[in-house]
Amino acid sequence: MAFEADFVTHCKANAGIAGLIGGRLYPLRVPQDVNLPSAAYQVISAPRDHAHTGAGGLVHMRMQITCQAKDYGAAKGLSEAFRACLDGYKGTMGSTSVDSCLMVNESDAWGTSLSMPVKRIDFMIWYHE
User: Fold this and answer.
1) Angle, nearest 10°, between helix axes 72-86 and 2-13?
2) Secondary structure of the chain in the HEC alphabet?
3) Which superfamily does 2-128 belong to?
């Protein structure tokens, strides 16, 4: 959970993201009773590298961010703010050393339970535990 906390803090500190959603970045799903636009994050996969001597300490995580808004343009704008913050990032996120963060996928959807547009973006993030 340490990396996820560092990831959330990094995203919330970004002026572009904060200007659109403030602190409304949630694990797994956006609650139904919050202001929009909002976003949720979830780990899709997080395999670890290993050597003959054991764990190597390098994680390559696929993180998905789901952006929700009242209209498609706002959902797309929020996803672009996350892309600008994260795509190509290398450095530290809190106490975590990040080797690389690359956007690897994006998709559109319709949130049927809330009847609103959804934009999903996936990032591959290589970091050290």
Assistant:
1) 110
2) CHHHHHHHHHHHHCHHHHHHHCCCEEECCCCCCCCCCEEEEEEEECCEEEECCEEEEEEEEEEEEEEECCCHHHHHHHHHHHHHHHCCEEEEECCEEEEEEEEEEEEEEEECCCCEEEEEEEEEEEEEC
3) Phage tail protein-like (3.30.2000.10)
Compute φ and ψ for 78, nearest 5 degrees. Answer: -65, -40
CA proximity to 39, closest of 101, 104, 123, 120: 120
pTM: 0.91
Question: Confidence class of residue 43 from pLDDT cuts 50, 70 and 90?
Answer: very high
